[in-house]
Queue: 2 jobs
Job 1
Amino acid sequence: MTDVIIPQVAGGEYAHVHEEHGPTGLMKWITTTDHKVIGMSYMITSVALFYIAGLLALGIRVQLTTPHGTFISFQQYNELFTMHGSIMMYLFAGPFAFGGLANYIVPLQVGAPDMAFPRLNALSYWLYLGGSIMMLMGFGVAGGTADFGWVAYAPLSTSTYTPGLGEDLWIMALVLTGFSAIFTGVNLIATIFYLRAPGMTMFRMPIFTWNMLVTGILILIAFPVLTAALVMLFCDRHFGTKIYAVTGCHTTAGIVDAHACGSAVLWQNLFWFFGHPEVYILALPFFGIATEIFPVFSRKPVFGYKGMVFATMSIAALSTGVWAHHMFTTGTVLLPFFSLMSLLIAVPTGIKFFNWIGTMWRGQLVYTTPMLMSIGFLFAFLMGGVTGVMLASPPIDFFVHTTYFVVAHFHQVLFGTAVFAGFAGFYYWYPKMFGRMLNDRLGKVHFVLLFVGFWVTFIPQYVLGLHGMPRRVASYPTGLGWQSWNIASTIGAFMIATSFMVLLVNVWVSWRYPVPAGDNPWDAHTLEWFTTSPPPHHNYTHLPQIRSERPTWDYNHPDAPTILHRHGPGHPNGHGPYAGDGGGPTHGNGSAGVAPGVPAT
Amino acid sequence: MKVESAFLLGIATFFGVISISYWFTSYEDGGTMMLVGATALGVLPGCYYYFWHRRFRGSKYFFWGKTDRVVGTRPEDRDDARIEDGAGVISAFPGSSVWPFVFGSGAFVFLLAFVFGVWLAAVGISLIVTALVGVTAESRRGGRH
């Protein structure tokens, strides 16, 4: 339990610090403060929860396949869609991105030995795990899990209408995971501001790291509001406050006493002030993943680096000013303000799309699984984004707000980001994390099944929405023409489920018959591919000179550097691979670019 | 530090403008308060970083006053910095620690007390206090130089 001090030694090398003999086995996992182990734990937990929530979704689809479905009871249906939404939103998509991938990748990308606050990082994970267990405990208590939807609208969520233990567990679980997210946000920002390697200026950071920085800020803006709102909700439920409650505040004459009454719309304001940034907390990391993958498999630098950075900032800034576009139909919000702000988000998102396409334009595209997944993300998110622009217009929103149209839009946005881009990142960084490859052919089978299943599932839901099928119904009458579309949607859902079985097979194959990955199997650009796979404790034994946003590429390709730097000895064409005349991993005049332990690729 | 502070002060400016325009178009207090909070989130650390950015370059305060303690720009802020420029101790990183797990378990049990019964709070708070004491002792004892 001794602190390990990481000296940075002249000559471009970190001194190799042997960790003292610590605990082993389970205790080693419990006491770890290594960002890689914590990131991995986050990812395994969140992907396991993703499979559970996926199973719940299949239950929903089976129930809706036939009119008057009898697969589950109405109560169970409510629990199913609530837990599906809650697990996917709070416990999978966010933690997978900023707890898992970012935790693992961001310190590597900026050349840091660990996160800024390793113990706080470990605490984040334990709070997240506790929150996940607490939410799942709802399945075991009398009255079942929470059943008020993942948005928990008051007054439905007050004790008058949903008095169960499951609801209380749900609230407390979100308090725990909320704190976990806040701590991770603080940790990411501090790591990026304070632990960058020399020469890694802010505008040389990989786009993924930039997006995680902006996500960290968004977390700090959004999550405290959610936690506060949840605490107030709990007080309403148990301590007799009347913040959201609208019952029991009538005078004896039956007239509403405004001073004794809470405001149900207040919950919506608070929740969506969290909820809309949350959508971008879920989206921005995945934008970052796609932005890492497109340049690598197009064999080009990213097109419009600064445009990407400023687009990310604009999206994040605008996303905090649009919360009430979820509340157009309440009639209590300022329509022009929120409509304008929502429509404006399309501009920076469009910039990103053009930059992604510009990155691929005239590149030498390599269609590996991560690249295919990222292209799938482009299509999926474009569709979700365009229908989002439609919904930002109040006249359209008034008509489709409570229909399946919104469900389809929402799933296309989040499936596009969290699943397509998320698993693109999984395929992309898996070799770095485990030192072995995933099978590319199985990966392509996964992609094709997922891509087809995705459209077959959600396009029918748009049609259903336009035909007037409301969301959150467990049963619908015959004769409305809804059944065939629902059957199609269910078939699609099972295709998606099958595709994720293929992923399990792929992981098993990689575990059973390992194919060594080497340090840089993709010939990638950013710093994390410079170190070994998996990286050693405290990440780097030495670092290359950082002269662009593609240090590893510059090191491995001294004849094709990203930029021609103006200053002398660091010039990649001049004095060899960057370390110049100052010691470090340099070998004379240049073209070899091979450092000990770093195979030239 | 310059880009960091500009980043945060940019957030402050944006939310400042938005909170003013939101207030004068809607007169809705809840949303305005949250936007003002977001403004403060940008102002406070932004000014802090700006202060240090000036300080590194020899200013005593934000704009006025000089000090002789010039630290210079950090290596990670210079685009011509070499890895050797960062030589020296980066930071102290705890090797391993059981206290985050104890604290996390304590928080878990403590919040369960709100659902299942107050008696659980005794267990939860004990674990949290133990963890706080433990982590403080560990930090003080740790191998600093």
Job 2
Amino acid sequence: MEVRSQIAMTFHLDKCIGCHTCSIACKNIWTDRKGTEYMWWNNVETKPGTGYPTRWEDQTNYNGGWELQNGKLQLKSTSRSKIIPNIFHNPSMPTMDDYYEPWTYKYQELFDAPEGDDQPTARPISMVTGEYIDIEAGPNWDDDLSGSPVYAENDPNLDALSADVRKQMFEIQRLSFFYLPRMCNHCLNPACVASCPSGALYKRGEDGIVLVNQQRCRAWRSCIAACPYKKVYFNWSTGKSEKCILCYPRLETKQPPACHHSCVGRIRYLGNVLYDASRIEEVASVPKDQLIEAQRSLILDPNDPEVIKAAKENGIPDGVITSAQESPVYEFVKSWKLAVPLHAEFRTLPMLFYVPPLSPVMSGSDGEITSNETEDLFHDIKESRVPIQYMAEILGTGATAPVEYALRKQFAVRMYRRQLTVGDVDEATADRALFEADCSREEAEAIYRLTSLAKYEDRFVIPPAQREQAIEMIKDPLEHKQSVGFGFSSPPMRV
Amino acid sequence: MLDTLLFVVLPYVALVLFFLVGIARYRNRPFSVSSLSSQFLENKKHFWSTVPFHYGILGVLAIHLAGLLIPDVILTWNAAPARLLFLEITGLALGIITLIGLFNSIMRRIRLPRMAVVTNKSDWVLLTLLMVQIILGILVSIYNGWGSSWFASSASPWLWSLFTLSPDISYVAAMPILVKLHIINAWLILGYFPFTRLIHVLVIPNPYLWRKTQVVMWHRDRKSVRLKD
């Protein structure tokens, strides 16, 4: 057992209101530089929808992530045997047009326009070439456009649904959607790191954050094709890859990442988990339908004396172990099994988990009558307006069981709380719901608290970075003072 | 005098620049050691520029390098006319492939507005030097044929005389003007090399082929903090 600590995240999709505040917070801090205008390290997608870059989930086109070849784990398009023959031109490389061409407006025209009969307008200009452009795409171009035959119907996850279910989904009365905020998953088995010919990408041992060393990046761009989530980006101005750094300068000073901190719906939870690093390859190679459970088994119980002992032997500080014991992510993912990874079938073992959304309100309309009366307590979940099979394609590797389990439990917690606060559900019904959802009253209470009442300290349990210890090995701590951060030691100029 | 300047001084200046500036750049500004890929901005024309250019020039350079390093082998190989002809045609074909690639590359950079943003003056100087060099090389192989043989028997000894610090220009002084121009331009490119994006040629994915799949870096020495009990 090789115990390591990893900073992991949980996004509660039921609470996401799709306001994009996370994206803006991130952009203002990290990607407002030349060459990064098109990058959204954090973005929010409407599902069903095509996402950013367009149809990123379709790996028959983007060829990202891992696949099993004769039982052996292989990078789909960026293994050594495929990168070297394609060294001068990688056919799986996305281009700017797969994302969008960033633009601004020529505001000066509002002032400089000659006097005339019409109001002057600020025309859009490309932030790459500076020329006038017709805007054809943006990072959230299909925002709230569920049901649109132009956008939502091209969602790759719909391919697995039967024609009937697809048709149902796009009926105007049943139309619904949910938001999917996305960022780097800081995977345990990152395809980007594995693919880098320069070894410029690496995972930090202490907290598992995946970073690109800008000084070592030699612009091979394998990582961009390798990441199945398309969360490594190419800076066309510097020629280097860039990606989410999980705001590590903030984390090291015990602040949550900006996207987490700014979240209006308070959907984001962050904490570290302990995991067994010696089993990574084994877990990433299990059959598709076992991936979610196998990934859960990789995460260790931080209260188990054996685990604590092994963690200490591996040099994990006490503070990091304590923080793992209080981690909200551990509760969501492991204790309650409410949160599941996004597209676990890409086999990167992502460390960002999603609580599947229960909404919209589960009532079906039958003519003029709206009702949800049935003997089966969880009838509505199966008849959900977002078909459970669709959700399973995104969050369950195609299997409905993990998603259904999470939805039943959430529904049971709602019944339990309704019985307590409103009283129109009787105790027996609530108890039966809890029982059928594999949930005790204590657990329901805890889920309710962490979901609805959680304070800042409950949502973000950040392990001590102990950079002071780390830096003492390399240089005088006083010399290190004021030098933490993304900054370069010399201007990042080319040639 | 002019010959000494062009075939002794110029090569040494170029070599010194190549090594000193190259090493200094690698050590002091590793961030700049790569080419600026433009595939992200345009994908289709990129294929028809970069692929023929790179494979062509690698082949051409390999033949030049063979003439320099193993001249005897080349001369023995060329003893049979059929084999000499084979090498001659291969070289010319590779040169033309390189030319096509470079031509496409230049046209792509002229025509596409997005390319103008990522092309600087140094790139244009370099593209011009390379274009001149490739055209000269093709002309040499057309008008001053059997280059693989005479390169091995006269250019190679001259280069070795330079490397062994006993320059002897008698080998090159009598060469035709096209060959001389090709040689002079080659040294210009070599001297200019470390100041340009050509620096990417020196990038070797060293541990890539045998390293572990994942790269994990530790800030603290875990052994030193391990419990002793």
